[in-house]
Request: fold
Amino acid sequence: MARFLITATGKDRPGIVASVAKVLFENDCNIEDATMRLLEGQFAIVLVAFSQSMRATDLMKALDPLSDELGLVTSVREMEELTEEVADYRPEGSLWTVSVNGPDRSGIVYEVASLLAGVNGNIVDWTTRVIGERDKPAYSMILVVELPSEVDGQLVAAELERLGQRLGVHVTMQMTDVESL
Reply:
């Protein structure tokens, strides 16, 4: 069995997910995990699929027609064999959701991510949006972060709140229910 990390990006249009899923289905691949976003009119998907019979080079050739037909840039990378340890992975620490909202400015992602990295926080999900008027854009970011068990999440939340005040944005952090992910 082979597992693949597959990406596809390009200008958005209806039918891209169906086209990618069709190629995978027709080539004996099962989609295990996926995320897809529209980013300013651009389509982006990242997924993990496995196959009993395909190789990465063969799967890339099967996806090539989508590059021409839909204008997608695709990549396929074979992943390490799934071990029981990985399959049974559960966070050792705690999961927290961080929300950042306020006027858009450069450096918000860097500052928040750096603070979290400084306490060995691992960002496991990340979404950002710039909304509002062009002359007065607002920024919204949501992160799911795994904190090591020895890190006090309430102290990190307080640090993030102080950082938000310095950056002129509102930052909150709350424990995340693992079952809701």
Remarks:
- The chain has a mean pLDDT of 90.
- The chain is about 30% helix and 45% strand.
